[in-house]
Amino acid sequence: MTLPRPPSPTPEATSFLLDPEPMKPAHGQRPSLSQMERIREIHRRIQNFTRYPGNESLRVTDESLATQLEVSDRQVRRDRGVLERLISERDVQRGHGGKQGALKFDKKRRSWLYTRDVDLSVWVGRLDDDELGSLLVAQQALAVFSGMPLARHITHIFEEDASGLIGNKRSALREEITQLVSFHPEGAGKIDPDTFAALFRALLLQQQVEVRYRSKQKSAASPRILHPYHLCCYKHQWRLIAHDSTSNAIRSFVVTPRRLKSVKLLNRTFKRPKPFHPHDHLRGPDAPGRTITLRIARDGAHHILERNWPGLVDTRSLEDGAVEAVFDVANLGEFKRFVLAFGSDCEVLSPEDFREDIRNEARKMLGAEPR
Predict the structure, then answer these.
(1) Among residues 215, 201, 248, which one has the least CA distance to residue 71?
(2) Closest CA to 295 of 341, 354, 332, 344
(3) DSSP 8-state assignment for residue 26
(4) CA dist., res. 20 & res. 15, Å (int)
(5) pLDDT higher for 44 or 171?
(6) Are residues 296 and 277 in the same domain?
């Protein structure tokens, strides 16, 4: 999905030949996250042309950058000004304050290029052990969801800046730093990166969206107008908590290509309610407060004791190595699947109606009872 490009600026602002000088930002002002990503992309494109100046398709102009980044030429000049300032600040830090500017517009080649090497760690900076570990975990956790924009951006940081991210004491790790942490969860939800980007923009701008959504009970998608309040990763699957204008209620929507389709940002805003607690809207249709007690045999006890399970309120180890676990259950349908996954390692101790429900479900699985 292509998001709409902002209105075209004036001819004076769009001519990169007549106005090659960048607009200077206020001294010391740090770029926002969105601007930082644009600056990194501008750097990558300029760096590519600097390496391969004979490739005309890699030429970099303010006009081409505005089209590729979907911003105005004026915004590109602002970003380029910040890029130059950050490079200059880095030169001063390294005692090279008198160096000639690294970024130059070559009129003959009709492109921006670098006159010398530029160190990307000017934006990222060096990380201590805790920060580096956190960034590694973030990269791998997001990479689980194929196509996640944030995962791609963090991967660029490691691929391009590994030597700038770590200090001399860890120089031996520079070639293998991205191999230190990995995630391998099963059943991670599928996601479309354009859909995720559009929803994230709508969240930031408090902008209404028009979507087509297919609920679990229906075979066809229906149009809805949503006020996006919150995005959360719930049980390895992204969900959008939003006010649904059709039902005039706050709902949880599964963000997968099969369920959420054709996301379109509208030129209408909304106000997010305060206070707002996302977890309150992740509960299923069953009334909360059902207390269920399970006995998990020794072979399956580690699954309970070694993980953080939602709703788990108490555990008690038994003499034979088994564990007794007490859950406060909000959604009986989901919890039934959780119990059945243990197979014969699990016995429902109470309540009796849920115990009978599991017994009947097991019979159906064996074909002993009709569905």
Answers:
(1) 201
(2) 344
(3) P
(4) 8
(5) 44
(6) no
Are 59 and 108 within one domain? yes
Across residues 316-334, what is the average pLDDT? 91
Looking at the structure, tell me whether residues 20 and 100 fall in a common domain.
Answer: yes
Instruction: Provide the residue range defining the domain that includes 107.
Output: 11-121
**DSSP state, 93?**
H
Kindly state whether residue 188 falls inside one of the protein's structural domains: no
- The enclosing domain of 269 has a CATH number of 2.30.30
Host H or E run for residue 313: strand 312-317
Tens of pLDDT, residue by residue over 135-164, are 667 666 766 665 555 555 555 555 554 444
pLDDT tens, position by position, 164-220: 444 444 444 444 555 666 777 777 778 888 888 889 889 988 999 999 999 877 778
**Tally of domains in the chain:** 4
Per-residue pLDDT band for 21 (boundaries 50, 70, 90) equals very low
The DSSP line for 99-164 is PPPSEEEETTTTEEEESS---THHHH----HHHHHHHHHHHHHHHTSTT-HHHHHHHHHHHHHHHH
Helix (H) / strand (E) containing 45:
helix 33-51
Three-state secondary-structure class, residue 209: strand
Prediction pTM value: 0.54
Verify that 204 and 150 share a domain, yes or no. Answer: no
Q: Which residues touch 334 (CB under 8 Å, ≥6 apart)?
A: 284
Q: Which CATH number fits the domain that encloses residue 304?
A: 3.30.70
Q: How far apart are CA 238 and CA 284, in angstroms?
A: 16
Question: Are 46 and 113 in contact, with CB atoms under 8 Å apart?
Answer: yes
- What's the helix, strand, coil split of the chain in %, to 5? 40, 20, 40
Residue 184 lies in a domain: no
Q: Higher pLDDT residue, 371 or 47?
A: 47
Shared-domain flag, residues 97 and 26? yes
Handedness of CA 197, 203, 206, 210 (dihedral sign): positive
> Which helix (H) or strand (E) element contains residue 73?
helix 73-93
Domain identity same for 109 and 147: no
End-to-end Cα spacing for the chain: 42
pLDDT (tens digit, 9 = 90+) per residue, 254-302? 998 999 988 999 989 999 888 888 877 876 554 556 899 999 999 999 9
